[in-house]
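Researcher: Next entry in the queue.
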Amino acid sequence: MVRNSLPLRRLTARSAILSVLLGAHPAQASAATIVYLATELGLQESTVRAALTRMVSAGDLERDDATYRLTPRLLNRQKLQDLALDPILRPYDGDWRIAIVTTGAEAAADRTLLRESLQANKFGEIREGVWGRPDNLRTARITAAHRLTYVTGRPDDPADLATRMFHAADWADTATRLLAALDTADSMRDRLEVAAAVVRHILHDPILPAEFLPNPWPGAALRHAYRDFRTEFTAFATAHVP
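Model: Structure for this entry, 242 residues:
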């Protein structure tokens, strides 16, 4: 597997813990389960326990006796991940939904939150303060939505605008290479590293109507491969947790 050509990250104790909990519903597990799985993946027990402590201090996890669960901030990330894996589509009739920032924010952090929320809901930036996307997707709640005014319109050249805003061909190229990497990864640790990259990549799928996508489009195949991996990882966990 050629790591440098893919958006892979080395498996750390923190990433292993998040991978376990973000894929779990409910998003919680006992300390014994987390430690045992992480050590089966080649991590040191002391490193995993230290990571659990740091993640509680950082506000990533909550601890209740010997059970760890995701905090609301990361539960929102899990919700966005779930929506990306199973997006709720609506019929596309050519309309675009345009979000215009009509109320400013004094704090830079507030502006960043709005930007990140629009991006998480698959809006692309047409120009500063003007965001849009084809109206084929039911979006989640947007942070600071009171700062936005929505309008509906149709661009003169929607295909060209979609290409410039969403770069679907680049997304498809990386997705195809991730599919190949997941297919050839042998160890569970390597497969988990690739699967983590797969779900991060799915989060950036623009989820455009078919007429704006290159053919073939690997979006469905990537989601199917990730679901298969989650089934595989669940079986691995069941087999290795005493």
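Model: The two ends are 32 Å apart (CA to CA).
Researcher: Noted, moving on.
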